[in-house]
Structures are given as C-alpha cells and as structure tokens.
Amino acid sequence: SDQPLDGAVALVTGASSGIGAATARRLARDGSAVALVARRRDRLDQVASGIAASGGHAVAVPADLTDPERAEDAVQETLDRLGRLDILVNNAGIMLLSSALHTSVEEWDRMVSLNVTGLLHVTHAAVPHLIYAASTSPRQVADLVNIGSAAGRTVRPGSSVYSMTKSGLGAFTESLRQELLSEQVRVSMVEPGTVDTELVDHLNETVWDASRRQVAGIEALRPEDIADAVGYIVTRERRVAVNQMLVRAGDQT
Ligand code: NDP
Q1: Best substitution site from 40, 91, 214 to test ligand 1's pocket, by max atoms within 8 Å of Cβ?
Q2: Do residues 78 and 133 make contact, with C-beta atoms less than 8 angstroms apart?
Q3: Angle (deg, nearest 10), helices 18-29 and 223-234
C-alpha cells in the first residue's frame, strides 16, 4: 500500500526510548526506513525488531553523540546502510535540573555536550545529504526536525542551562530554516510539554520530587503524542512548511 514516506530514509537520535522510539515507529509506519541512534544497543535492537514485526525497516546505529567523531560516523553509517537521508530528527537530549548555586559544572557540561554540541555535529554531517535527498526525491523536499522543549520558553528555577540549550536551539533552528529554504530542506522545531518518558530518571531525588510536584495532577503527554507532531510535519506536501509546534499537556500551565 502507498505510504506518504515510501522510499524515504530517516535518522532519529535518541531512538532507544521515549519520544525518539515513538517517532521512529511512527516514521516507519508512514513508510520510511529508519536509522535508530543512541547509546544502548539492546534497546535499539528492541525498537528495530518491533518495527520489523509491524512490516517496517529499521537499523540500529549505536553511538554516543557527545563524541564528535561518532556523531559524524552515525550519519555516514546511515548513508552506507540505507543509501540516502531524507529526514533527520534531532531528539537525543538530557535534562539535569538543579540550582546554579548547587550544581556541579560537570552536569552543565553533560547537557551542553549532548543537547547542543552533539546535535550540531549530527546536523553538520547530515545537511549536505538532506539537500541531495530533497533534489532527488519524488517528495521534492527533505526535513530536519529539532526537538526543543516548552522549557525553552517557560523558564523555572533549576532549569537554567537546560532551558538555555532548548531556547538556543530555537535560534539555531530559525536561522537554519532560512538558510535551507532555497534547498527545499524544511527545518522545524517541536516543543513538547510534560511527556511521560525516562527523561526524569536522571534527576537526583530532591529535584525529582520537586519536578513531580510541579506536574502533580496533570496527565502527562505520551511519547506518541509528540511522534504525531513530527509525523504531521514531515508528511506535509512540499508547499507546506510547519515551522514550529508547541505541544503541552492538556492541563499544563
Ligand atoms: P528519554 O530519556 O526517554 O530519551 C532520551 C534519548 O536520548 C534516549 O534514547 C537516550 O538513549 C538518548 N541519549 C542520551 N544520551 C545520549 C548520548 N550521549 N548519545 C546518544 N544518545 C543519547 O527522554 P525523552 O524521550 O523525554 O527525551 C527526548 C527529547 O525530548 C529530549 O531532547 C528532551 O529534552 C525532549 N523533551 C522531553 C520532555 C519530557 O517531558 N519528557 C519535554 C520537552 C522536551 P541512550 O541512553 O541509549 O543513549
């Protein structure tokens, strides 16, 4: 049967859990072959077999994206194994919340090295291939989707550096969008509110409690809700460019 992304190849970072895994499944269902990038190989293999079981095609590409060489290799490996690159979803990210006074600077470095530096290295390696895909695909367009956060707009105590990485991503996305317009590469950002994923598992207990209190009584979004947003963006026809989507939980302030 004809799917909107038949013949396309997508690379999803952070595809071993949460929003990335759901997005990979969604793009595969829409007909795209998918390269799954993250560190945990066992989890990537699980996502890949799930996709295969539903009739899709996915390959696991284990990589720590904070290593610039691995970030570039992950893009090249996708090209080698799947032949092209039509869609890049920059989703891998970590959120370590803590007050600036009490945090270790090492936590800040970890966030910046993945949410910013890792994302930049993947993007730099991928863009030439996206441009080529746009010029050769029947869709006549390629897509780069960055996963930002509502925390890039609504800043709270403890979110300083996390919010900085996500709000800076907004600036990067908008500049790149304008630069790549004439190349038929659409660049967009999806900004999720509270989603039920493993993201908060990396918080220390105190911050975890505080962040749970903040969302107490709110039904969190599911990873599939954000995958829907990404799926919507990349399946639009070439004349449509959805630049930004802010998707909060229904009861979220
Ligand atoms: P998860 O923790 O479930 O997913 C994070 C993903 O990033 C995992 O696949 C993880 O895989 C991967 N990752 C972490 N470190 C690295 C690394 N060094 N190299 C490669 N991959 C890495 O959380 P979410 O699904 O929630 O997060 C996805 C994105 O959504 C993030 O950018 C997050 O900031 C954003 N977001 C999430 C919200 C939420 O409420 N959950 C709200 C707003 C935005 P592995 O550990 O195997 O490497």
Answers
A1: 91
A2: no
A3: 40
Q: Check if the interface score ipTM surpasses 0.95.
A: yes
Task: Tell me which H or E stretch contains 198.
Answer: none
**What are 146's strand-pairing partners?**
90, 189
pLDDT band at residue 1, thresholds of 50, 70 and 90?
Answer: low
Q: Which three-class secondary structure state does DSSP give residue 189? A: strand
Which DSSP symbol is given to 116?
I
What is the pairing mode between strands 58-62 and 33-38? parallel
Task: Name the percent of the chain in helix, strand, coil, to the closest 5.
Answer: 50, 15, 35
Q: Show the domains of the chain with their CATH numbers.
A: 9-247 (3.40.50.720)
Q: Of 114, 144, 130, nearest to 14 (Cα)?
A: 114
Residue 79 has pLDDT above 70, yes or no: yes
Q: If you measure from the C-alpha of residue 239 to the centroid of ligand 1, how many angstroms do you get, rounded to a whole number?
A: 31
CA atoms of 114 and 118, how far apart (whole Å): 5
pLDDT of residue 202: 83
Strands 87-90 and 244-247: unpaired
Ligand 1 site-directed mutation target among 12, 16, 113, most atoms within 8 Å of CB: 16
Give residue-wise pLDDT tens across range 15-62: 999 999 999 999 999 999 999 999 999 999 999 999 999 999 999 999
Instruction: Give pLDDT, residue 86.
Output: 98
